[in-house]
Amino acid sequence: QGVLLAPGPVDSVLLRSTGTRFRPLSFEVPKPLFPVAGVPMVQHHIEACAKVPGMKEILLMGFYQPHEALSRFLVSAQQEFKIPIRYLQEYAALGTGGGIYHFRDQILSGGAEAFFVLNADVCSEFPLQEMLEFRQQHGDAHSFVILGTTANRTQALNYGCIVANANTQEVQHYVEKPSTFVSEIINCGIYLFTPAIFQHIGEVFQRNQQELVLEENANGWQRAEVIRLEQDVFTALAGSGKLYVYKTDGFWSQIKSAGSAIYASRLYLNQYSKSHPERLAQNKPGGPIIRGNVYIHPTASIDSTAVLGPNVSIGEGVTVGAGVRVRESIVLHGASLHDHTCVLNTIVGWDSTIGRWARVEGTPSDPNPNDPYAKIDSETLFRDGRLTPSITILGMSHPPQPRRAQSFPSCSPSNALSTGCSVTIPAEVVILNSIVLPHKELSRSYKNQIIL
């Protein structure tokens, strides 16, 4: 999971509203600037929020120090979507509820009537407008809405489970990661709130203050401000007539591991084929062979004999040589794939190089294709003392400073580039199911290893 942690990962995205207008609000995010389907993960959230009529502002929340890459991205995103975007830094990790409660004045400034909260470690179609319409049809003016979806009975135990009235969709019972089966409807980590939510969070805060005790074993004070929306707030709201679930049949997945990042990229690329086909590469005379959904940054150099796809994302300034085959992979900016390399189920880190006739391959961790409600499992790094077979990762720690915070393919290319991951794979070797840390020059083949 560490490969998805951003350079100073941002923990939340906030959207809120002024008057009858809406803005978004808090979501925990692993590596918001990690590219999925050609753009930073968090940009998919921002794009969805910007489409909501009347959306006024987007706030990203987290407790990590802001950095240049994030600042450049925010400037670029504001220009792209014509909406103010700010980063609010927590003084400590406060949880999803504690974070929005701490910044409640910022959220409510201007007379906000409603706001969205989106966890950034999910990919989705983000049916925000549908949630707004659902709320207008259900509950009162102070009701709240959770986005839910269906999981199979086994995997539902890994999520927040929702029991709802079949007719009204009112949440009657909520349990976070139960030990036994409760419901197949799970929490998607996307919420629609009104300012009334802060009264309920405030009650939790006051209760925490009253129960505050010195934890001798932890050698410190338990923070009353750390509040979890799911366990601390939703559990109490269930059955009160104030909490509803909007169930979606659209795609949804968590992004908790490197393997799930490739799966999320596949989902977004498939969405592009329906909603934004102009973002996908097409077969053209003199161009590479494209199979399925493929994103290629305009600055990438691809040999006409290369074969790409399905489900491939090629980043800025990437060089792909003759006869190269890439499938189910993400190639980040500045990477170089020399002639006749084969890259399957792999994330190729920034500025990495793969030599001629080398083969780099991982094992996909896709959901069961025969189960329409199956979700991707977040595998542990080790199982039974051995590295769990998964996708291969070359040199990912955190992204270098971008040449320019990129948006969609229509954006102009960037200029300056600092050092990246810089993994070098020699010619004619095989790297299988392995994780290669940054700045490594390999000299031979590896299988099922972490190369430090």
TrEMBL record:
Annotated signal peptide: none
Residues of the Nucleotidyl transferase domain: 18-204
UniProt keywords, alphabetically: Transferase
InterPro entries linked: GMPPB_C, Hexapep_transf_CS, Mannose-1P_guanyltransferase, NTP_transferase_dom, Nucleotide-diphossugar_trans
Record flagged with keyword Protein biosynthesis: no
Pfam family, one: NTP_transferase
MF (Gene Ontology): transferase activity
Residue ranges constituting the Mannose-1-phosphate guanyltransferase C-terminal domain according to the UniProt record: 290-451
Origin: domain of life: Eukaryota
Keyword Transferase belongs to the record: yes
PANTHER family, alphabetized: SUGAR-1-PHOSPHATE GUANYL TRANSFERASE
Family recorded in the similarity comment: Belongs to the transferase hexapeptide repeat family.
Protein's UniProt name: GMPAA guanyltransferase
Species of origin: Psilopogon haemacephalus (coppersmith barbet)
